[in-house]
Each structure stands twice: as C-alpha cells, then as structure tokens.
Amino acid sequence: MTTKKRARSSDLLKFLSRYFSHPLRVGAVAPSSRYLARAMMEGIDFDSTRLIVEFGPGTGIFTDEIIARMHQECMLVTIEIDPHYAEYLRGKYHERSNVVVVEDSAGNLEPILDRYNLSDREVGAIVSGLPTPAIPKPDLTRMISSIRRNTETGAKFRMFTYAPSVMIPYYDWLPIRTLSKTWRNIPPAYVLGIN
C-alpha cells in the first residue's frame, strides 16, 4: 500500500470514528472527495495570499489541497473544535512550520490570529468544512461577522453544502452565492462562496 493510500485509509478511519461518535457535529456521511477539495480552491489566488484560514478541517482533505497549492511564505491556520480531529491534524502536519492547528471555535478567529501574531497579515481566503446548523448560535454569529469583515477587504470565502436552500439562510446578510456543483462526491455537493 502506498503512503498516499495509507494516509487516505487513516483519514477514512478517523472520519468514521468521529461520525459514529458525533454525527451532527461531523455533518457529513462520508469524507469530502478530492474533486470537491479542488472545486473549493477555485478562484483563490494562491500566489499572492499569505494567510489562509480553514474552519473545521476534520481529517484534512481540504487542508491537503490548500498545502499543495499555497505559497511557501503563506501561513495556514486550521481551526478545529473537535479535540480528536485537532490531535490527529497536529500529528499529520507536525513537520510543517507554516501550518498551525488550533483547537478552538471558528467564532474566535480574531483572538486566534492575535495569539499567533498573525493579526497584521491580511486574510486572503477562508475555507470552511463546517456543518453550519450544528454550530452554537453565539459562535455562528461571531464566525459570520469574521467572514463578513474579511470578505469586505477582499478575502475569498468558500464552503460546501448538500442543500444550498437550507444553508444560504444562515448567511443571509452575506453576499454568498453558489459557485459550482461537484457530482463526484458522496453525496454530490455545492460549493458556495464570496468573492
């Protein structure tokens, strides 16, 4: 078995373990496909972006795609509230000095950037794998405020859903729109975004 296949197998086992423990917090029935990961990156300028934030990286499917594309001077801050996923990601990315795994709520983006001395950098992109309906309302309100502040200064925002009509109302005061649909995912998923 190749290293990539072993890593995907390990990711799948970790995903299934967390899904059966906390299905609402995980919010998906299967890990996102690499096709969805690629679709989530469309329109992000990886050459000029020096700070990317990822909400809810889970096992790191989107994280891997971001790392493969980002500039060597770019910092990636992944924010994962599930302690099991956070521990898994710290082990997976421990050799990467430009990847920070934070065990916290996505609603705490500004204090997290302050904590890691990154508040002086402009956020170029926010990529979210979070199951929005499962986020507590205070955290969701702070998270959406952070998304709004950063997208108003040009940051790209990307998220996915299986049902845009259910998801978009959570973000009703943001100019979010459907960007694409990925059929090669279980189930097929829509990529939503700003900018």
Task: Describe the overall structure.
It is a single chain. With 195 residues, the chain is of the alpha/beta class. The protein has a domain at 23-74 and 121-134 and 148-194: Rossmann fold (3-Layer(aba) Sandwich), CATH 3.40.50. 39% of the residues lie in helices and 19% in strands. It is built from eight helices and seven strands; from the N terminus they run H-H-H-E-H-E-H-E-H-E-H-E-H-E-E. It has helices at residues 3-21, 23-26, 34-41, 61-69, 83-92, 109-115, 137-152, 164-167, and strands at residues 51-55, 75-80, 99-103, 125-128, 156-161, 177-182, 189-194. The chain has a seven-stranded mixed β-sheet, sandwiched between helices. Strand 1 (51-55), helix 4 (61-69) and strand 2 form a beta-alpha-beta unit. Helix 3 (34-41) crosses helix 4 (61-69). The protein is globular. The mean pLDDT is 89.
Which helices and strands appear, and what pairs or packs with what?
Layout: H1 3-21, H2 23-26, H3 34-41, E1 51-55, H4 61-69, E2 75-80, H5 83-92, E3 99-103, H6 109-115, E4 125-128, H7 137-152, E5 156-161, H8 164-167, E6 177-182, E7 189-194
